[in-house]
Amino acid sequence: MSRLRVHNLCVSLDGYAAGTHVTLEKPIGDARALFSLVRHGSIHGIGGSDDPVGLDDVLTSTWAQNIGAEIMGRRKFGPQAGPWKPDDDWRGWWGEEPPFLTPVVVLTHHPREPLEFENGTVFHFVDADAPTALGMARELAGGLDVRRGGGPSTVRQFLEADLVDFLHIAVVPVTVGQGGSLLGGIEHVRELFDIETVPSASGVEHQLWNRRARESSASTPR
Amino acid sequence: MSRLRVHNLCVSLDGYAAGTHVTLEKPIGDARALFSLVRHGSIHGIGGSDDPVGLDDVLTSTWAQNIGAEIMGRRKFGPQAGPWKPDDDWRGWWGEEPPFLTPVVVLTHHPREPLEFENGTVFHFVDADAPTALGMARELAGGLDVRRGGGPSTVRQFLEADLVDFLHIAVVPVTVGQGGSLLGGIEHVRELFDIETVPSASGVEHQLWNRRARESSASTPR
Membrane-crossing residues (chains A, B) (predicted)? Predict the structure, then answer.
């Protein structure tokens, strides 16, 4: 079955997955330290370069494996809020080579026409709740898995709705002080998962959360 | 640059990477316990199934990433020794779906015509020393990395010749007693590598060996 996966979600020691004050110059707000330890050069696979391959790279390299679509929040697509301006030629943070290479469902209260790129990335702008968005992404994924991209508020939304099957968290040894909390107030979702914790030489602690097998009926005792 | 990588090399606590007595029924000899802890379902990437994703799967999933060719010993291709029999219709252990999907250089003292499969796998049978075989594999790989498959005696040969750039060893908590030793007598090669050690919840200890940067001239002091 097509599963919903979250990858490379960097969380600070004080529990924040993104900073505040996102601007055009600061795509992840004031939490840049969160991402400084995790290289993202291997999201399309290790190898093909002279870089050494460490555990962090190996874990990062799972990002695109058997993924057919992504769901992201509007904030990940761009810094704007409110209705799109008719003359806005914004096409995302990534120029003409977005790294996704698949359809991407962008959650927004302001739908607009899709944006297509030559490398296979297509952004669809959709006003939908989490289950509906997931159904659309599954259809676009053609049987492959769906990746839930950031930010933390939208990952939270999918965790609360129990739609996440796999979650890779990278706990980074920095504190951020304020920002978007991943699990604050929804700690109970942890009980739905088997969690494997893996320390890395870089100081990052990786957590692999696998949703326990779901019963076919909610009333069936385990 | 195209690098030579070794993946998922299972080694017992007493240092053996394969058992003795390889037969048609026992492709890895009497060392089956060596491989029982490491699932190989994810060699073409995690996801696309309902299986949970653990650290062992993540590491296994790097096997094919950016790989354009494999080099293997004849023993990995089949149990026969000596000249090929003219009426032998052996096409490898894997039936009509070998998992390689790329050219494969099979090292043998008895060259023969290549064997092609519809899924992209092509076995080339070559009598060559390690550097020559690597040169041929690099050409076949079209700029991508080359994977060195088992068994241990051929991996040893490439380690001794300092041709290996990356090595992933999975130390499995079993003893085998006898078999093919990976590092016995060539322990000094370890000093050429930076080694990251990663424990797994399964009891397997993973080691990521990255060859330190090679100087352009051997006489240049570090």
Answer: none
Chain A residue with CA closest to B5: the answer is A47
Say which CATH superfamily domain A4-81+105-211 falls into.
Dihydrofolate Reductase, subunit A (3.40.430.10)
For residues B80 and B96, give the distance between their C-alpha atoms in angstroms, rounded to a whole number.
19
Chain B CB contacts of A167 under 8 Å are none
Hey, where are the domains in chain B?
4-80+98-175+183-211
Instruction: Domain B4-80+98-175+183-211: give its CATH superfamily.
Output: Dihydrofolate Reductase, subunit A (3.40.430.10)
Q: pLDDT tens digits, chain A, 222 residues: what are they?
A: 899 999 988 888 888 887 655 555 555 555 666 776 666 678 888 987 888 999 999 999 999 999 999 999 888 898 888 999 888 889 998 999 999 999 999 999 999 999 999 999 999 999 999 999 999 999 999 999 999 987 788 899 999 999 999 999 999 888 888 788 889 899 999 999 999 999 999 899 999 999 999 876 544 443
At B55, which amino acid appears? Answer: L
Q: Are strands A166-172 and A205-211 parallel, antiparallel or unpaired?
A: antiparallel
Q: Do A54 and B196 touch (CB under 8 A)?
A: yes
**Could you give the ipTM of this predicted complex?**
0.88
